[in-house]
Amino acid sequence: MAALALAPSAFAGTFTPESGGSPNANHIAGLYDLTLYVALVIFVAVEGALAYALIRFRARKGRVAKQMHGNTRLEIGWTIGAALIVTVLAAATFISLHSIRDPVNSGPGGLDISDGVQYETTGAIKPPNGRALTIQVNGIQYIWRYTYLGNTSNPDGLGDPYSYYQMVVPTNTTVILKVVSQDVVHSWWIPQLGGKVQAVPGYTNYTWFKIAKPGNYKGQCSFLCGRGHARMIAEVTAVSPARYVQWINQQKAYLAAADAQASTFRAELSGKPGAAAVELTNK
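The structure assignment produced for this chain is given below.
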């Protein structure tokens, strides 16, 4: 009984809560708690009735058990009761799906266009006011690449700043993720920020989150994607909008400097004959 009561899978949301990072994750946790509490009530009622029957009607010397065949009222009662329970859980699930699936607007103090960062729009999912920060999540064996879309005029994200492993986002801002894969099927999942999202080659999936306060949120690929699967870790760092603008501008500066250096090298390389070009490349 002690092992059953402390089953880690059944009480995972109680002993190791994973909500609190984003509204959609909170709604998922709420559904889990509702299901858990209903199941606990049923478990206690059934096991209590069983324990009572075992003690109250246990075998005793000189007594002969009464032979019974069914109980129509009882059977109809527990059938209707089970149907009602399933109906309530189904209704609660469908009511919550909207809050889990559809993004909400950014909150007060979130990133705004006036902060100097443009929003990238997507036709898949978007908040009611249509404004969200969109980041492309690309699964690669065995690392995550994050491209911060909408920072250039290229619709495919070429030239936009990017980062690996760690995603940086502003607080109180709705963030939409375009989840793709470069090679095999991966699964992007940070439990505190919502449900799992498959990264499938040739297909785009979407999810969203909104983080209220600065902090770090960790997860990893949750789909076996090869020998380096265990090392495919993900991390989201939420910072203030002002600090995010500073960080994204720094990433742009790094990218511009790298492009300038590459242009200089290409120009130098184009002026060299074959053998000299090979020697310069080796350097």
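Interim note for the steering committee: The helical segments are 2-5, 12-15, 23-56, 72-101, 241-270, 274-282. The chain has a mean pLDDT of 83.
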